[in-house]
Write a structure and sequence with these properties.
about 450 residues, alpha/beta, Aspartate Aminotransferase, domain 2, 3 domains, disordered N terminus
């Protein structure tokens, strides 16, 4: 046994580990041997050639072909090991192949895989109840299940449109730098022009106001406003947190105007910041929250949680739906993920390892700023070398992300250990130096 991951089953005392068997290391082995019967066996270059000839190019060229994961580690088709510090972009909350989540998914799939929305299942009901409890939602609150974050935000967009009984509430407010998804309603809320321009005209009525500017917020929210959409921390913009004062001002302004306050916690929710919701510290009750990413621990599931009976009654029978939302397997995966986070002391781990990682980053002379909470971290370096750092990191066995020319984003599994964080911190000087040298050479 060469690598261990996991935390205390009770959440008390020092972390206990579950073993990652040696057979999961190296190339085609373990479950990969079974998968190869269906997919065939190939190396990274061959897989990428097949990718380019068979899949749409909407994601560009994949950086690697990954075939297996265990805990915070993944391996590519050529057998190279990587420490995953991106977690599928804040998705793999418990890392890869978590034994409890895997066993629950397998058991549910062997019992009941799918029912239409003419029916329900125990896992769907239990997950809705669990989310209402974790979010401290008041009486009358409800849940709608989707398959992803953008679909949860699409449902929230329609919810906002329904907050228009007098026909005058046609304005929806979002922030500059916002990313809420790529379907048409969610894209209208997203601020990045490069994402929006090819698909205009988008659904109308959306206004983007300056980030974290309370005066601009108060000036924009009026009796024509249906809703304000906010990310407590903007992930795609480089991990930019809204201040507690801003969140409170948003609640005050929307309440006074009769507008909805909708919080997009797709990236920040489910323990990512060391709390179930990043907005908890602001002490506010929103009208709705959207969730996804870490909710299913890697299995596709999203949710819109509406707070209170009035907001929860805005969408009625037939006004929204989805084929796969609330699927028994997806909701079982989410229940297993939430149970593991609660029972294995994961939130405490997020706070401890996140603080350690941020402190280590801030101590580096080439790092100019560190932002974020828990294990959603953005840091800036002193040159436009972040994309080159991603490449250097891959070569060195780390998976990271660059949302900007000087910005690196980290969103690792919530079970990341101090030792694994230190591996990255130790390697960071060489990664920056390599990126600077590469960038300088390319610019000549």
């Amino acid at each position: 046994m060469s690598e261990t991951v996991g935390l205390s089953p009770t959440g008390d005392g020092p972390p206990a580990r579950f073993a990652v068997p040696d057979h999961t290391r190296g190339s085609i082995a373990g479950s990969d041997a079974k998968a190869s019967v269906i997919t065939g066996v190939s190396n990274g270059a061959d897989w990428l050639a097949r990718y380019s000839s068979s899949l749409m190019g909407v994601f560009g060229t994949p950086q690697r072909v990954l075939v297996r994961g265990a805990g915070c580690l993944v391996w590519d088709a050529d057998g190279k090991e990587y420490l995953d510090l991106l977690g599928g972009i804040a998705v793999n909350a418990l890392g890869h192949a978590h034994p409890f989540v895997t066993s629950v998914i397998s058991s549910q799939l062997a019992t009941l895989g799918h029912v239409s929305n003419f029916f329900t299942s125990p896992t769907q009901i239990a997950l809705a109840e669990k989310l209402l409890s974790l979010s401290k939602a008041p009486a009358g609150s409800k849940v709608f299940f989707a398959n992803s974050g953008t679909e949860a935000n699409e449902a929230a967009f329609k919810l906002a449109r329904r907050n228009n009984a007098d026909g005058k509430r046609t304005k929806i407010i979002a922030l500059e730098g916002a990313f809420h998804g790529r379907t048409m309603g969610a894209l209208a809320l997203t601020a990045k022009e490069a994402y929006r321009a090819p698909f205009e005209p988008l659904p109308g009525g959306v206004v983007h106001i300056p980030f974290n500017d309370i005066d601009a917020l108060r000036a924009a929210v009026d009796d024509s406003t249906a809703a304000v959409f906010l990310e407590p921390i903007q992930g795609e913009a480089g991990v930019r947190p809204l201040s507690t004062e801003y969140l409170r001002a948003a609640r005050e302004a929307t309440s006074a105007a009769g507008a909805l306050l909708i919080l997009d916690e797709v990236q920040t929710g489910i323990g990512r910041t060391g709390k179930w919701l990043a907005s908890e510290d602001a002490g506010i009750v929103p009208d709705a929250v959207t969730l996804a990413k870490g909710l299913g621990g890697g299995f596709p599931v999203g949710a819109l949680v509406t707070f209170g009976s009035t907001t929860s009654a805005l969408l009625t029978a037939g006004q929204h739906g989805t084929t796969f939302g609330g699927n028994p397997v997806a909701t079982a995966a989410a229940l297993a993920t939430l149970h593991a986070i609660e029972s294995q002391g994961v939130l405490q781990n997020v706070l401890a390892v996140g603080a350690h990682l941020r402190d280590g980053l801030a101590a580096h002379e080439a790092v100019t700023e560190v932002r974020g909470e828990g294990l959603l971290i953005g840091f800036d370096v002193d040159a436009d070398v972040a994309p080159a750092m991603v490449t250097a990191a891959l070569d060195a066995g780390f998976i990271i992300n660059s949302p900007g020319p000087r910005t690196i984003r980290l969103a690792p599994p919530l079970i990341l250990t101090i030792e694994q964080a230190d591996r990255f911190l130790t390697a960071l000087p060489a990664l920056i130096s390599t990126a600077k040298a590469t960038t300088s050479k390319d610019n000549k």
